[in-house]
Design brief:
Distance between the termini of chain A: 6 Å
Number of domains of chain A: 2
Radius of gyration of chain A: 22 Å
Shape of chain A: globular
CATH class of the largest domain in chain A: Alpha Beta
CATH architecture of the largest domain in chain A: 4-Layer Sandwich
Strand order of the largest sheet of chain A: 6-5-4-3-2-1-19
Number of strands of chain A: 19
Structural class of chain A: alpha/beta
Oligomer: homotetramer
Largest sheet of chain A: 7 strands, mixed
CATH topology of the largest domain in chain A: Metallo-beta-lactamase, Chain A
Chain lengths: 447, 447, 447, 447
């Protein structure tokens, strides 16, 4: 029985992840993501209403047209976690496959939202949930296991396939964080056990591999400590206060809420995506917001909340979207004077997010920060830790799993290559047992 | 009789240059420029219709309100050359002064255009022209001399004031280029002569001083050689061909025309500012366009020309605006599919301009280049030399003039400081005879 | 009574700090440091045996020859903390002044060591100690106060002069760290009190002001958390383990010891400067080393300890000098195979120090790391936080002290200028109440 | 008959190039270079006296031990040009093969020098010369052709193998320079002809591919123009004058001589490698030095020449080795005061070479420049153009040759990958017809 790993998306870019694994006649698909950067290149891209083929041509979603030549039956579409570069294309692509969509409960709820928002296609695939630590039989030969992982969104897992030819581990995206409050640490014990049983192939993210600063990615404990030190002052000043972070980073949102709840300020979570990610997290009992807090998602509700805050700015903490300065998001609109809340001299703005590297983000953030400063705000911009494994984390990971073959993913060629060089330091060899694939290429392992 | 140099604009930024020199009771103003970057920070800035005070508040034009406290009479407003960061505020500020506007003929024509376009103010100051090498008495005590300089626009000069207390040299902006075709080399002989006579103060640009790569700024001969090598191939391919450069860089435009005229291609100069700068240059006999060339400025004329070129792309060379990727300029609009000319596989695009350092330009250029490439264009992006003096040119300049005092200008504090450190290597001392001013500060020299 | 601040060293470089403050006829000197980088430029520089004037000419120590023209009497030489760029020139310069040397007990002990090592001059100035929080009358008019600060060495203080004309604060070097274990937090209460009383002038470091990454410098709690996460794995592997950090960073050394003491490994602190700084710290009760630890300083003792460790590498943790890769320090010598301890495959090396920015350090570190890796070591290089205040810490500091005048120090012109721009954001103005001085320039405040 | 390309050295680094091509039973080897950087990692590396296996272990020379498993007979060892990273290992490796060494006359003379200097091995392989444009039968099936190329050393060629399975082109190292004086332009006509005949495989350098600044590498005409502008001033000042450049860059040396010969200065070419490369070039009629010039290579002769120059510095132009600041080379030794020629205030130093990117070079250059400046020299450091093809040159090259397969070489993985991505823009696909090899891997093409 041969095993084949088919690179569909995310092997030439950071984004639009999708990989298929064929074991004998059974095919399992991992992730169906979008490539957010590509949207801005064509100004008229309206994702919700566009057809898959147009989006494929523009490089926005994975090009899965090659799947029609794959001789096999798709038994499951498995999602590692709920970020858009992993689930964002589900409504465009899933309906072509007669197979269930499988994710942890939080991921599954986000997939459901994605499908509900779709305007072009009807997606009727059943959605199944599997808890971290759980197993599910996908076919006669294949059993799926979700091994607990950590990332920058709750309920991220390593999906693992147990096959007659060995174990296949899909490790997009993860970090090794032993200090999150919302999520337990990664299940190192199980990873080592899998390593002893025999891992045939590891498909693994390479997003952070070139970052020479963060050899082992800092834990969320670091982010908590930084935010505690940064927020203490502003919380007790009699001025306005805004924190912006990733809506989906529920761990971080929890941290911000925990620090602020001891103060007298009422916490307002504002913005559509803030409502989406935090609302679901709260309803599932993952996020525990304090009493003095509310979430507002609709433009109307947001405006009303901002009006309230404008007049009593020292009484509120605004937690908003817009950390990249994207012109339509909330914080940039506040900075541009387009909301009822006007920045005044002395207001404090904490940006708990990096600039996602891309010239447009750099320009948007620059303009937003200049506007905020011009209105008199004080900006604290360095309150973040990454959600992706660093170089030395990856080394540890390889040592735990001892895979026969490694396929780096979720990166451009320079990232996949850098991962390959790390693997060579651990005794592997590019071209022999480390395989660098381009989108639409496949690697066959003969069992 | 005391001499006072008053920093009005351009001492905390690259842009909106304006300096006043007071000699006894007479005041001479140098330049009235705008700060282009600042316009984009406030989205609703409509320069032509806005009042000076609003533009001052937004940092777009120099804040000359301090001039009302200067006890003296303005005898002349002198323009060094025709770039917008030196003349762009003339229509907003000049009418407040009862004094003539003085420039070389090319500069004067551009000032006239600027005034004609103004919608808010009436500007009735007389415009006087002075040729490079010429002199003009501005008051009993002060004579203005224009010493030939070189820059990236024709007829740039060093305006020099001969005063009873010594000579004052205003050196914004210049390079030492001995190989331009449109402009003669700088008048080194006269500069050295001034040095021997005794220069009291040198007010000097510092724009390029931090560039450690270009110790002596390369001459336009280098740009010619590079463009010759780059253009040769594309000129004779049967595909579309576009060159974009600064409209005001008439020397460069001449070079492009000279190289292309030997080919069979008809040259189309396209875009409003291309028409403005090149049209005047041609009418004044500065720019000599070949027979097989035309300039189109109005949107309608440009569109018609593009339609013609679309069908016979191998027969035309388009010379366009838009090298920074500014969304409303021509090349970015072509890249975005918004004109009758569609980029096709194999078309060649030569960008004869650097990215002017600024996150918005970086983002715009990035998006434009990605779109051009996505349509199949081949881009050549490294065909430029700077128009500003390099570190070692400045050293030579100091040695020629041997000024008693130096006031670096046209830069942020880090540039003015870097100039100061260079001057210290030449025996000066910051705080003693090198004076780093902030906007609105003045330096007095007691004669 | 006029007050004069005289810049002697550290106003054109990071290093060789020295400032004099003249109040009426009394002069107080702050710090007498060396400039370590300058030593390597002249290969034959032997500090211990060279004369002050030679060292001044080479830029290694501050040029205090201008002090002979200062009309006043030196009443005290005050040291802010024990780093070499603040005390390293004491043995070369102090003997010229008839005044006591004043520091906290830890600083005083280091000064004593410095004087003991001198081969050229006899230094007989009395050494006086003053505890953080203490006061000492220096003359009729001047009282010195040591306000508790934090930095990367124990017992760093803000020396404060109470004068008839107002308070003068000397703030080199500091960070705001509320989470050190060896040192209490800065005395914010007292700083604000001084601000209310009226600070005439603040002399303040600018070393980190250009670092746009660290807006508020991370606390040592962050370093502890990082080191805990990094060291946990290596401590329990059966391989060699080395940590290198600044010998004088007693807080960090304490952290390393605290983490390691729970393991079975014996801790060996190795290297001459490790013995100097940690030995004194231990004898003064500042550093509390666990039982299973020893310090070895002499080459012989170090070698013996390394021999022991070579054979039972899994039983020891080596804490060494050499984090910059300086060829004669211990870790680079180990890396180069010149000690009895040979790096073996699997050994772990943790570098708890940044590359101090300088091309020589970059080259040395690069070579050291390549050698360590070539021998099979695994390197963890990102376990550090800075000891210098960040941009936003400085903003807080200015708001606490509200000084009438600010004089940035301990930086090159670009750093002093960047500090000046920060102060301008807080309402100050360079040239008016922010004074950028060059070495040997003075600023007079008329009381 | 199958064709196999075997990567021996230079596929994981810039340096120690060596590639074997097996056609049926015949093997042709291209280049035997050293890796200069690796020497400094082990301080005790004495190349001339060390055994191949030690040098292989240290990564200094290619690991050709795999050749014993290659089932075939070596018919020729072909050298593309005379740089050390292409010929430097000849004396260590060639004796193991019973095959002639083949190069152009200039390359052959340099190989002979290399062999003469060897202390460990006897190398008796016959040396054969082949002129650019010439052909030589290497076996029944294989004919070698040397196609004229340009690089930064004279007589660089593209060695081409004509085989029954198609043409194989070896393109290390080259640029497309139409304006050299010492060398004719590349033979574009022949390259296109080869493309039409059918190129099976292109083995091609990737050294400059990541340089986004130089899309088409500037020609030596640019370097001439720059040097003319830079040297004019210093030549006629009454001060010392030094130019340093690559000894092997005979074209550049010729340029320097041509510019200087019109002045009154006598030109002294100084340094051992200057004598080696220029001496041979002169004896072969490639370099034409003016009458008022001499070459001195031995330390004694150099010292004597320097003594002469010391006393009449305005009468000489010194052209020296040492542009990287390597401590033992001439210019760094002058800078460090270790020669009879002492830098005086006003002396001019022109560095016509880039910093070869590597932390040690950066540190050495930094120290050398600081020393030169400290002694009063004025440095001009930006007088160079690269000798390696840029990104757009490579695109042109691919379009000329239209090879079936491409194997990028002479780079680390990131460079080979970047080349691969360029090839993909031209319709190739990594993994299909672009092959990224690691040292010791092979690619087979079945004819």
């Amino acid at each position: 029985m041969s095993v084949e790993v088919i690179a569909i998306g995310g092997y030439e870019e950071v984004g639009r992840n999708m990989t298929a694994v064929k074991v004998g006649e059974d095919v399992i698909i991992f992730d169906m993501g979008i490539h957010l950067d590509r949207i801005s290149i064509h100004e008229d891209t309206d994702i919700d209403r566009m057809h898959s083929l147009d989006l494929i041509e523009r490089g926005v979603i994975p090009d899965d047209t090659l799947m029609k030549d794959v001789d096999g039956k798709v038994k499951g579409i498995v999602f590692s976690h709920g970020h858009l570069d992993h689930i964002g294309a589900v409504a465009k692509l899933a309906h072509r496959y007669d197979a269930p969509l499988i994710g942890t409960p939080y991921t599954a709820a986000l997939i459901q939202k994605q499908i509900n928002g779709e305007r072009k296609f009807k997606v009727n695939n059943p959605i199944k949930t599997l808890n971290p630590g759980g197993k599910m039989k996908l076919s006669e030969d294949i059993t799926l296991e979700f091994v607990q992982s950590t990332h920058s969104i709750p309920q991220a897992v390593f999906p693992v396939l147990h096959t007659p030819e060995g174990i296949i581990v899909y490790a997009l995206d993860f970090k090794f964080d032993n200090h999150q409050k919302v999520s337990p640490p990664p299940d190192y014990r199980r990873l080592k056990e899998l390593g002893r049983k025999g891992v045939l192939a590891l498909i693994v993210e390479s997003t952070n591999i070139k970052d020479t600063n963060e050899v082992k990615t800092y834990s969320e404990r670091i982010a908590r400590n930084i935010l505690e030190d940064l927020m203490r002052g502003p919380l007790y000043e009699k001025t306005g206060m805004i924190v912006t972070t990733f809506s989906s980073h529920v761990e971080r949102v929890q941290t911000i809420a925990d620090i602020a709840k001891k103060s007298h300020r009422e916490i307002l979570f504002l913005g559509r995506s803030m409502e989406r990610f935090c609302g679901i997290a709260e309803s599932q009992g993952i996020l525990k917001l304090p009493k003095n807090s509310s979430i507002y998602g609709s433009p109307k509700a947001v405006n009303k909340a901002l009006m309230k805050a404008e007049d009593n700015r020292e009484k509120y903490l605004l937690v908003t979207t817009g950390h990249q300065g994207e012109p339509d998001a909330l914080l940039p609109r506040i900075a541009n004077g387009k909301t009822p809340f006007n920045i005044k001299r002395g207001d404090n703005v904490i940006i708990s997010a990096p600039i996602i590297p891309n010239p447009t983000n750099a320009a948007n953030r620059h303009i937003m920060e200049r506007r905020l400063k011009a209105s008199g705000a004080r900006i604290y911009a360095n309150a973040h830790v990454s959600g992706h494994a660093g170089r030395e984390d990856h080394r540890d990971f390889i040592r735990m799993l001892k895979p026969q073959h490694i396929i780096p993913a979720h990166g451009d060629l320079s990232m996949l290559s850098a991962y390959g060089e790390l693997a060579e330091e651990e005794g592997y060899r590019i071209g022999n047992n480390v395989h660098i694939l381009r989108n639409a290429q496949a690697q066959v392992f003969n069992g």
